[in-house]
Structures are given as structure tokens and as C-alpha cells.
Amino acid sequence: MKKVQITETVLRDANQSLMATRLPYSDYEDILSDMNRAGYYSIECWGGATFDSCLRYLNEDPWERLRNLRKHLPDNRLQMLLRGQNLLGYKHYHDDVVEKFIELSIKNGIDIIRIFDALNDFRNLGTALEATMKYATPKTIASGCISYTQSPVHTVKKYIQMCKELKRMGFQTICLKDMAGTMTPYEAEHLIKGIKDAVGDIPLILHTHCTTGMAYMTLTKAIESGIDVIDCATSCFSGGTSQPSTETMFYALQQYGIETGLDENIINKVNDYFKPIKQKYVDNGQINPKSLSTDAQALVYKVPGGMLSNMIANLTDMKSMDKFDDALKEIPKVRKDLGYPPLVTPLSQMVGNQAVTNVLVGERYKNISKEVKNYIKGEYGIAPASVSEELITKVIGKGGKPVDCRIEDRKRTGEEFETAREALGDLARSEEDIMSYICYPDQTIKFLKDRKAKEENEAVYTIEAIED
Ligand code: CO
Fold it and tell me: What was the pLDDT predicted at 466?
């Protein structure tokens, strides 16, 4: 029987897309033992914005959360999302930091590491991949991930080349990540058939979002075209800017005669569990009704929804909404000049802001943001197509060449560890604490100080209790 498996995203991407990743661990601990037996391909539960959110908003140790997830989900695969050499942020870390982060992630319980780069510059995936293989357990899977976008240079042929390259590098599965939800059903069909013909023996995963309303149709075509795994969220946390619903896809696949391995009773029980939790966050405003509905604008303008709302906010702030149409028309031009980067954070904001600036100033590239300059210098990696000569001349000088992706900066210096160790002093109790600091210094200091203060308070109470 044909098989399509499902990754459940409620703990990570659905949580991130619908409620800015503010779901605390305590909200879902009680359902984990059921989720453990649901038969998912994997549970995406860590990485992405969860790490930052734990430290910044939830006063949780992200590593402790991971260990708890591992404890209560012993039989399922725990999955995380990792931004290659940037780990969970936007900065390029040294190779030794990337390696240590992966070592600790696996040690604390991660099985599948989905690794991507915003520009699909796969040199940014190499260190993370090697580290994953080095510390792999029998359950570990290194998944190579492609940031999906549409542009004249992003052809089926190009995506097939990317898949071949990921396979050659040694990735065990490949994921197509349609973060804006703009992949159409027929694009999915052409793409997946093409990829399956070229690299058919490697499991292929589709990750999309319901943002534009395309996702269910796109998944249908993907399934007919041979996709192996799809990402879904339990139904009360599905739709809108999140993933398609797990149960809905389960019933549709059942009619196709395709096996998912899911336990019908358990996936419904999981949804029943999350319903009041969702309601709580709708009631307190944490889940904005806007994020639950369909917004097809991204299909009209070929830019992600978040990028549009960002532009509208900027133009409104500057009382220049009359320039909105001009700014929209400027986006494809800026994108072409920058070599068609995928419109994913932070590139989407950079392209949007530059388009707005060009229109407001009235002269193209009279002002260029620091971020766009750094991009042109090559600090984010290699652009999918060449950057316009005019921009290169303006930023680097005539005939200038972008630097080689700061490969030189990646040396194993131990410097980032030393700085972190010194800054933390006795606040750090583990390598995990040090790693948290390297990723998010300010939030980690605050978190560790709070932890220490709390423990000291508890110690005082204990002594008092004994004296009583
Ligand atoms: Co996503």
C-alpha cells in the first residue's frame, strides 16, 4: 500500500505562525504521552523561533524543554528547524559553535535536523550537516531543506539541481519549504514529479502554509505526484498562516487508499486537547483572527503576506500610503537587481524596505540600507542570480567582487565560547547555558540571573521551614 506520512507541527511552526511562538511547555505536557503514540512521521517541536521565545518571553530553558519533550515522546522522532550556519538567528557563527550546537541538540533529544539557508547557498549547510553525521544516533536524520520561491531563475530544472546537490552532500531526506504558501498545485506537480524522476530514492517532504488558500490543493497534487511526507498541524491550530489540518489530510488520504500510519482516535484526541488552549489565546488576543483567515494577496503581488503588511505599516507611518502601488511595482525590480533572493526573513524585509526607500526618495538606490549593502558584499551568501552591475559598482566599486560568504570568518577559534564563559561566570552551569548565551546573550543573562535568584529564594524558604 502506498504510504504518505505526516509531521505534526503544532508545537513549533503552527505555534510560531499563529501565536508568535508563545505556547509554554506547561500547556501541552499532558498530551505528549498521547502524541507519542499517534504515529506521526515526526513531531516538529524545537528550533525556529522556539529557542528565542523560551528565553525572551516564557522564562523557560529551551534545553530543559527539549529534554522534557524527549522524556514524554520516547517513541516519536523529535524534529527541529535550523538555519544552517546561522543556527537559530541571522548571524554567521563559527564552525566550532555550529558543531557544538548540533552535538548538544542531539544529546538533549533531537532526532531530525531540518537544515536550510535563506538564499539556498548550500555552503551554509555543510558544517551543520557534518556535525549531524558526526554525532548521529541510529535515529538521527539530516534533512536538507530548500527555501522555495518563484522567480525567472527558479525553474524546475534549478530545483532539481539543488536536490541533486543536497543528495550528493549526504542529506538523507529533502524538504521543499514553501514558507509563503505561494506554491500552486500545478507547480507542486511539475516540481515533485521532476524531482522524483531525478532523485527518486531520497524521501521528499513538502512544507507549506495555508496563508494564500492554496495549501490543500497543493498537497493533493503533491500526493498524486509522489510526495513522501507532508507537514500538517492538528486542526484547531491549522489554516491561516499555519499548516493544513492533520485530521483532514488523514481522512482525505484514507479515501485515496494511502496509508498514513496515524491512529484516528489519538489524532482526534490531540485536537480535542488543544481546542481550549487555542480558545484561551484567541480570547486574550495572543492569536490574532487575521492570522486565521486566507489572504490571497501574496499570489497577486508575488510577495509573502508578512512582507506586505510590513510595507503597509512603514508607508502608513510615513503618511505615504499614496505611494503603495509604486512601491509594489518597485519590488520585482529590486528583487531582480539583487539576483532574485527568496523572499524569506530577513531578505523579504530588506527587499521591501529598499523598494519603499527607492520610491520615497524618488531616485533608485540613492539610499541603500546597511543590510542591503552587506548582502551585495556577499555577507549573506551567494545570490541565486547575479546582482546588478550598477549596484555592485555603487557598493563595492567598479569591477568589485562580493566576498566569499565569509567562509574565512568561520575558523574554529574558540573565541565565542571564551567570551560567553567569561560573561556568564558562575551563572553558567552547563555547556547548554553557554550555548544559549552565544545565541541570545541578553535574554540568557536575564534568564540565568532569574534562575539563580529563584533558587536562592527557595533555599531561604527551605531553611526557614526547617527552623519552624
Ligand atoms: Co513554515
Answer: 53
